[in-house]
């Protein structure tokens, strides 16, 4: 089995891949039946080997970039704006604003790591302006069209938010 792991700046391993090559799978399939004599354990091991050989085991491949955090922060800002405009949805707007604030903090930390203290704020603000302008154009400057953004960004940003929650619970 082959695998690789690096250590991120947060001192936790970041797995890039684990794969079992075809020759290793064949070897396991040929050798295990002889040694395990068709037991349930052998079937279980063969099932795991099959699953490992067809997919990546770990979804987390690289640390999240400033751009990913910024994109999702702007998405949540746009959602907050849409909720505020509809009226009566202030609580929803506040929740979206909290998500945006958390993602902005993380984007700034990622920028600090990537660009250093001297340039981090400048790169973050430039990225924020670009993404905000792009998303505003996507909805034709009308919050009634925010469903366009939901279609494009909601799943990605929900996954990012879920990964932030799970990493916060681990820490």
Description:
This protein is mainly alpha-helical and 171 residues long. The chain has two domains: 2-54, no CATH class; 66-170, no CATH class. It contains five helices and two strands. It has helices at 22-36, 40-54, 66-86, 90-138, 147-170; strands at 2-7, 13-19. A two-stranded antiparallel ribbon has the order 1-2. A hairpin with a 5-residue loop joins strand 1 (2-7) and strand 2 (13-19). The protein is globular, with a radius of gyration of 22 Å.
How does the SSE layout of this entry go?
Layout: E1 2-7, E2 13-19, H1 22-36, H2 40-54, H3 66-86, H4 90-138, H5 147-170
Helix pairs in contact: 1-2, 3-4, 3-5
Structure, briefly:
With 171 residues, the protein is mostly helical. Helix content is 73%, strand content 8%. It has two domains: 2-54, no CATH class; 66-170, no CATH class.
